[in-house]
Amino acid sequence: MNKPVQYLIYSLFLFFLACQPIPVVRKPVLVSTNQIVFYDNSILKRLSSSNDSLIYQPADYQVSINRISYQTTLYDGTPITASGIVYLPSQLTETKKAYPLLSFQHPTAYSNAEAPSGTNFASPSFSYPLYFATHGYIVACPDYIGYGITDKIPHDYEYRQSLANATVDMLLATKEFLAQKSLTWAGKVFLAGYSEGGYATLSAQKLLENTYSTEFQLAGSSCGAGPYAMPAFFDYLTKKQTSGGVANYLYIWEVLSYDRIYALNKPISYYFKSPYAEQITQSIDNARSITASFDQLCTDQFKADVLNPSSSFRKALNDNDLTNWSTQTPTQLIHSQQDEIIPFLTSLQTYTAMKQQGSSKLSLVALATGFHVPTEVIFMRRSLNWFEQLKNK
Q1: Which Pfam families match (predicted)?
Q2: Would you kindly state where each structural domain of the chain is located, as residue ranges?
Q3: What pTM was computed for the model?
């Protein structure tokens, strides 16, 4: 064979290789695992539901509760090791049954003790993750950045990217954990979360669909009372009458988180009037005792920033908005029209916008009554009932 022909064949071979898809080699994210406790069926049967509307029937289940650590990233891309809890159910009569995976995003935690890893597992008690586990779901619970083994780092409150990364990387780590234990699971993934957990759920869902659609089969997502329509949420907070106390604490926490994350570097007095600015500067915990409506706390310049499309704070709000995409995953937004902490309009506007963009399997469950915290129980029951319908489809 002469050299020109050899060169031609070699060139064609290189061209063929160049046209082949390059396999993506993903680094393992799981760092470590350890079983914290094992609840046998007799222990589970001694527990009782926190609310009569939640039917807790552990049947013949037993549950292994495990802490895992895994690699994720901070808001600036810095790698960090985070933590979470995985509930592994099994049944005495069906020892080899394959269960679906449910990622449970916890609501606002005011301390590390309220995060999944902060639970006192040595003293068995009813919990929402246990509720799902004893209905046949492997439950993964990310702590988020700022809790668990990252509790020395400020929590990025209501920040889309951090919540999504922590949740999705927890799912990846859980998948590795199941493989290490040679556990067969059903392959379907469900997402659920309420309040900040609802916002984390929709944030993670968007990331999963955009980046990990071949890695996970999303079967259903249930989001409760989250501030998904972030610009509209702050438009409301700075114009309308709101409840004081803990609500002010939450809103101020979010403002200061965005100031830090987006390097806005504004003094607290830029956002809030005197004497509230001085009280918050002394300690954000003082916000709990401020009974005035949030709009009365805000300076005129801050209110103007919220409305100004070119302001740095409004750009931060836009970056955390979850209304500008569409999903084909069966998804429900559950929200009470009487919610005094996160106004119902955030779910309504998100539903309307996402429907207009082609989200054909999106539904809005508008509850007529119920304040923010008590409605969490209704959310859990409705989510489980819906997942049970989707599980066998």
Answers
A1: LIP
A2: 30-228+325-391, 230-318
A3: 0.92
